[in-house]
């Protein structure tokens, strides 16, 4: 466990150490007159891109689009061309859809960046610029640090985004702060696991920068790693359908960040607590994150939630005696 | 029932009859130099916009974005401005998030279009251009016809989209063809209801132009109207998490269109039928749609699926003795 935490911190530090290289790459890229940014990934790699899409939509005058890579390949957006930047991620570097997306983008003359854990993977070889994470396990937060370095760097250059240094300074606190989040989350995670160990159906709820975490926690953790039904529900959509299934037996895992999505999530909580007691609320405000400017806390939403949720996953897997590494199909049978 | 079908056809014909007015409106709008199109809606109204977003992404050189209206309001995209067109829909015309979206867009100088069933609703009064559907019940397909008329009209003007007439001619067949789809779906829908009446958990799966239907069927029908757990899963994401919960007891409702999403959906079927027999596959190819050019069938994917699914909903509600009109909260309690 202690070793895991050190590995985790190392992977974050490694991501932070790529900043100079990323800034240099972005300056070089922007000589190509980038007019749109396309993110393509699958599952957990896509989920972290949702936050990047939101941040760019809010702050940038160039359009940003996040796609499931398989869908991107079949859709082949008309805007894809020599003024596009495709940003991809795949931990193994072998995800076929992601590698195909890179091929398609290159054929159209787009610039390509890839994040992967493997230097000698197909993805590393295919993209114009590769950034490696040296994470031994899940690389999500390390990748997200580098994604932030890229998008904020683009926005600094193209949109005169003034808070670049403040965002970077906030990211620099993550190796210490996220380790602390994990410690602080330990007891709540334990309580969660005890209380919910026999449940088989969940809704996970988020909006804005907590949406990607709600999405990933449902499909990549509860479904993929625990074989439990878990539906990710966007807080803005909750009142237009899903809330009708909520009664005293519903189990809601609600993710509350400090970004623009917060009021949408608060509305879900205000309503739902009248009808079920089975609300698990993770609020980034519960974590002090020392050294982070108040105004920057919103951007750290996905990091803090992901670090806390790691503990929830760990404790749930332990008490259910269902290790997070077990798969029925993934990597075991052809598909 | 016969009356319902006539009402349904009338609402489609009414939507088709708006074409001249819509073409005129688009020509007028484009004098404003529209540089991006934003769709904002909630639940079922948002779901049909997903198809429009996809079609524009594939065929248009101006960016298109579909947002949950509540999220749009909090995000307030930087690209929103006097060169934006906001397209909204709300059957009642009273959805607060949607009306707020219109206010925000107008403050930023954007042009606004609204679809609603009520001439004297707030939405009707707020938007620059209103188009009424005269549907007595669900207005989804009528709204989608008008949405298609708008986006294809925009693409004809801005992108030289050459198949405008062919698309419009395909839409003209819908009053007859969708009535026929409903008849043809009747027996399959009956079998579905018999077989699945006691199930409480579903996955609905789609991609491309079937994705909006998969999304809406899960959240607006199975959850909102039948109080059953139903998770919409994008076919491209299925293999990156959700498929791990699939065993012989999983219930999959799989929507197969004839657009770019088809191969993604086929992959889900090829895999899943090895592990569960409980696959309900709706394939638009099962419906002849006479008079529709082969190349245009893809665009009709959401219409054909929606018409067929109407029957599935009707039969399921009947056999479960749970009318589609019953709500726990919607329109009953404050939220």
From TrEMBL, chains A, B:
What GO biological process term is on the record, naming one? protein N-linked glycosylation
Ranges for domain SIS come to 26-161
* InterPro entries documented for this protein: FrlB_SIS, Fructosamine_deglycase_FrlB, GlmS/FrlB_SIS, SIS_dom, SIS_dom_sf
Q: Which CDD domains match?
A: SIS_1, SIS_GlmS_GlmD_2
State the source organism's domain of life.
Bacteria
Supply one GO molecular-function term.
Answer: glutamine-fructose-6-phosphate transaminase (isomerizing) activity
Please give the name of this protein. Fructoselysine 6-phosphate deglycase
Q: Which residues form a coiled coil?
A: none
């Amino acid at each position: 466990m202690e070793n895991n935490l050190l590995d985790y911190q190392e992977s974050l530090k490694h991501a932070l150490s790529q900043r100079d290289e990323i800034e240099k790459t972005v300056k070089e890229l922007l000589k190509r007159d980038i007019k749109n940014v396309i993110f393509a990934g699958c599952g957990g790699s896509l989920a972290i891109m949702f936050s990047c899409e939101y941040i760019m939509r809010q702050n940038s005058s160039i359009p940003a689009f996040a796609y499931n890579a398989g869908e991107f390949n079949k859709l082949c957006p008309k805007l894809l061309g020599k003024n596009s930047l495709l940003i991809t991620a795949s931990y193994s570097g072998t995800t076929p859809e992601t590698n195909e997306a890179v091929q398609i983008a290159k054929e159209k003359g787009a610039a390509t960046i890839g994040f992967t854990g493997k230097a000698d993977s197909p993805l590393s070889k295919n993209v114009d610029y590769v950034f490696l994470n040296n994470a031994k396990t899940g690389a999500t937060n390390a990748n997200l640090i580098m994604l932030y370095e890229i998008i904020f760097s683009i926005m600094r250059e193209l949109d005169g985004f003034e808070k670049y240094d403040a965002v970077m300074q906030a990211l620099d606190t993550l190796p210490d702060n996220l380790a602390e989040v994990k410690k602080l989350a330990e007891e709540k995670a334990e309580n969660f696991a005890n209380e919910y160990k026999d449940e088989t159906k969940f809704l996970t709820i988020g909006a804005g920068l907590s949406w990607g975490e709600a999405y990933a926690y449902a499909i990549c953790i509860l479904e993929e790693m625990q074989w439990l039904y878990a539906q990710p529900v966007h807080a803005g959509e909750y009142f237009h359908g899903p809330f009708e299934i909520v009664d005293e037996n519903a189990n809601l895992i609600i993710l509350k960040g400090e970004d623009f999505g917060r009021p949408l999530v608060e509305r879900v909580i205000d309503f739902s607590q009248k009808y079920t007691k089975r609300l698990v609320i993770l609020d980034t405000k519960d974590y002090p994150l020392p050294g982070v400017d108040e105004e920057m806390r919103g951007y750290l939403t996905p990091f803090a939630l992901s670090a806390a949720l790691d503990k929830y996953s760990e404790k749930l897997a332990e008490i259910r005696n269902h290790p997070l590494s077990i798969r029925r199909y993934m990597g075991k049978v052809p598909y």
